[in-house]
Design goal:
Layout: E1 6-9, E2 26-31, E3 43-44, E4 48-50, E5 53-59, E6 72-76, E7 80-85, E8 90-95, H1 101-119, E9 124-133, E10 136-141, H2 148-157, E11 161-164, E12 167-173, E13 176-180, E14 185-186, E15 197-198, E16 207-214
Length: 218
Amino acid sequence: MIHGHQFDFINEPCLNTHGITLHAPSITVIASKDLTLLERFPLKSPWVQLSGREGQYLSRVAFNEADEYFSWALRIKDVLTLIWLPEEQTIMYIKDSHYSPELLQFWIFHTFFPLVLDLNKRYHFLHVGAVETEGKTIFFSALSFGAKSTLTDYFIQQGATLVSDDALGIEEKDGQYMAIPAYPFHRPYRKPEELGHKVEKFAQEAKSISAIFLLKKG
């Protein structure tokens, strides 16, 4: 389960590591060579820095007008372009010169799909590390290089269950805020374009939030 969803990589079956779960929504990921697809997105952002690459956002309307039917695209220079098709619940991608299956997986799990969920107002995302320990889900929040990953790694080494390494979706249900497990990878380091080490203990369902710790340098 990735951000509460399961993924079916049609053209990269090597990335399909889990069986189908009937109760979980499914996202189809499929390749295309049709560059004319990008013509539907007349609005283009300047190039910005994203995880060591240059990225550009494309859309039909302004991002502040996004709703559950908002379709848009993310271009990662020299790697790929990702397109969200909300009606089909499909991510279409166009390969570029530096494409690889691992980079496809990284950009979808780490950046693109969290933005899809946030823009479609499904979840709110927090930049935190999160673990479950002694039956409680706790968050670590800090500025970049503020020890979120270090503390998350410490708890994992002590046997805690990973909930999120970096970006965590929050869903409100009946007045209660639930943490949606992100993906079963952890980076105690910050090497660009890597999901990190796969962990054995990863949360499998939404968890209520017990505590948030704001980290400050001593």
